[in-house]
Design brief:
Number of domains: 2
Strand content: 15-25%
Number of helices: 16
Distance between the termini: 33 Å
Radius of gyration: 24 Å
Number of strands: 17
CATH architecture of the largest domain: 3-Layer(aba) Sandwich
Helix content: 25-40%
CATH superfamily of the largest domain: Zn peptidases
Shape: elongated
Amino acid sequence: MAENIKIDFQAPSAVDGGDVVVFVGEALKPSPAVAKLLGQKAVDLIAKVAAVENFKGKAKSAMAIVAPSALSVDRLVVVGLGGEKDRASLDWAQLGGLVASKTSAKTATVMADFPGITATPENIADMALGIRLRRYSFERYKTKKDDTKTEGTSRFVFAVSAPAEVKKAAKTADGIAAGVTIARELVNEPPNVLGPKEFAARAEALTKLGVEVEILDEKAMQKLGMRALLGVGQGSTRGSRVAVMRWNGGKAGAQPIAFVGKGVVFDSGGISIKPGAGMEDMKGDMAGAACVVGLMHALASRKAKANVVGAIGLVENMPDGSAQRPGDIVTTMSGQTIEIINTDAEGRLVLADVLWYVQDRFKPKFMIDLATLTGAILVALAQEYAGLFSNNDELAQRIAAAGQATGERVWRMPVGPEFDKMIESKFADMKNSAGRQGGSSTAAALLQKFVNDVPWAHLDIAGTAMGSPQTEINRGWSSGWGVRLLDRLVRDHYEG
């Protein structure tokens, strides 16, 4: 859960007490405005201590001066921005996370004026976002407090030249932070707590923000013909669900955009059962659905001027006597048939029906699905990039640009007729697994058969969304990957 942190924005003034954060480049000098506010003695002190500590002002570096004689504060925290090239590619959220990690006083004042950089209100808001994301932790089920853990700063004051403008931008960033937190919470929850029904209830909570939410139970899905999705969940005692979320912030009747998430709340592999080692991580096999819920929260909280559909397929894949078998053939909602080769290739079955349902019912401008779909994507891209597959170059390019802007990077992977050939079945229209070679692309090839001519992108997030790399803005197991990326995509191209 996110710690209770207060973030304020006010005009620069003299500071008395707490931590003060200032930024320097490789010249080790604050901006002229900050230097004037601190005074020459403080500027000289920075240079003197830097020489002793061998601090060079490199990007992502910091040093702390305790009880600086030139100032009436507890600590002067000096953060390096690096050279000109580093400053040109500065990740503001990561910078905020770094600041949060280096402060310890109850209150920290951040001198948000940067040598060699003209920061926008959005840049400062992203720093505040980074602080909030850095301070997230998931300790709901711990009964004993960690006595070695310091409380850290509970109030950050940004000294900025235009407080009102930054406050406005920060309000949007707060909604995004809340969306990321929701996604992280969902992925981190244990599977005994978060089944399909409980997950659907979390999605229903978005009604408080004006999101319309509709829950399809198994009876409704049977009527629609979602037999691929239902087949995945038939081995579990917990019934499957589909949650459909609608944010109508655009023009009435305007074509919506759509996001679809895989929500396998626990994946044992079914009859094709997974190895026991590490199976506990399969509680995170619903990270795609978690992202969609977090994204819908972010969009609704900032009242995005767009019509947006979010749809998530929620199932549990278990191996009881009713479970789906290798060799079974299921008929999807589209009428196409799929031979089950491996019951652990279940996410594409869930998405097949939900993608078809969304394109058929809502006729969206585009669809983007997110899924922790294949281990093969980790072999290709490790945990550095999500795999991007698409039938539309413009959409793919826009997603890639949003990824670069937010640091949630994607890498485009191939999907085409060669991979269609690999999933041909002797007994059905296609098979759900073609083996190890090209595993991510053959999975994407199957999904593409359920989008018709709608512009579509598939994001394979198996490497980025759970067991996530540790960064300045993510110190937990789940990063909430995709919320910031897709919010940026919508903001840049699909509002108004």
